[in-house]
């Protein structure tokens, strides 16, 4: 198309204006050459293939943002509480003082939209209220674990089908035996805190999918090695355990040398692999969103191609659905002191439009 002088000036003006605007509204869907809008939602294609696609969501966003809530119910057949199932939300004050409202609201949303609900995590070193840390210091670990896991998992029996029972127990960089993370649970109960948590969760709900969740196994040999050793140890002790979650917080610098072997070894132990927190960190501060989105899609494809070449995860969860609500923006903009930087690491953009990453997810599932 021949560009007239008028058109050139118009385009150049728009481009400079656009560079100033933080979140230049995505081109109207109709204008987008690569529109995926005609394709069915991810929930439809994953349901057909016997899989679940979902996202971590927060109750305020679901409650206050109808466009977001509609996008979640359109694209997902699974949701995960971003923090409503964590100790600091469920029992912030003292033992037995439960606050189930937010988690109940998420269950109601999931149930109303015929979605599954998985929850994260039961035992983690983060999101612990100070009173729990104090009790652990005082030696009340077993009592705490029992009086948290048993009533909580029982209450949601038949409502939450899968829990990350223990999250991020491995951190070889801490220098402890077997690569265990320096955790208040480890200090209070020793290494078998992990096995205890799984046995309690299974006692509370024998039908529950019990998951060990962690990260960095896809990129660091030592993390993959120590997580495999932990899982083997749990299986050798007949610990009830069904799947290992790969969080998959990806970034553009990563390569995935340990990933394929890790997935194969987990499957050899009779366990499933699930993808639990997929998103992609891409740091650039320029506003060429289309370039950023393509880099993010390529990295997503690189990771998923490796995983799906050796196994078939039955659950793919992204850690958020739309860039409008992404922990990456919260955390990385603070870390980098870039108040106006916005992440683009999720399947839908700031205005809930599908992006190349969405299409990578769609094509990955469609070709199964
Ligand atoms: O809801 C309260 C709000 O009332 C209060 O005013 C505010 C003040 O700080 O805090 C709000 O709670 C925050 C919550 O997110 C909701 O925004 C917590 O402080 C904050 O710690 C919490 O962060 C979550 C973090 O886990 C810790 O639980 C992030 O949203 C969540 O994305 C992040 O997710 C973790 C996974 O669970 C495990 N894998 C890594 C992943 C990213 O860190």
Structure description:
The protein is an alpha/beta fold and 368 residues long. The protein has 15 helices and 9 strands. An 8-stranded parallel beta barrel has the order 1-2-3-4-5-6-8-9, surrounded by 5 helices. The chain starts with a helix and ends with a helix. The model is unreliable at 13-32 (pLDDT under 50). The site of ligand G3I has 9 residues, from loops.
Give a quick summary of the entry.
The chain is built from 15 helices and nine strands.
Shape from CA axes? globular
Structural class: alpha/beta
Mean pLDDT: 92
Largest sheet: 8 strands, parallel, barrel
Order of H and E elements: HHEHHEHHEHHEHHEHEEHEHEHH
Low-confidence stretches: 13-32
Spatially, the strands of the biggest sheet line up as 1-2-3-4-5-6-8-9
Bound molecules: ligand G3I
Distance between the termini: 40 Å
How much of the sequence lies in strands comes to 5-15%
Number of helices: 15
How is the secondary structure organized here?
Layout: H1 5-20, H2 42-48, E1 52-57, H3 59-64, H4 66-75, E2 78-81, H5 87-90, H6 101-112, E3 116-119, H7 130-137, H8 141-155, E4 162-167, H9 184-189, H10 193-204, E5 209-214, H11 221-236, E6 243-246, E7 249-251, H12 259-268, E8 272-281, H13 289-310, E9 315-318, H14 327-335, H15 356-366
Parallel strand pairs: 1-2, 1-9, 2-3, 3-4, 4-5, 5-6, 6-8, 7-8, 8-9
Ligand G3I binds near residues 82 and 327.
Notable features of this structure?
368 residues, alpha/beta, 8-stranded parallel β-barrel, 15 helices, 9 strands, binds ligand G3I
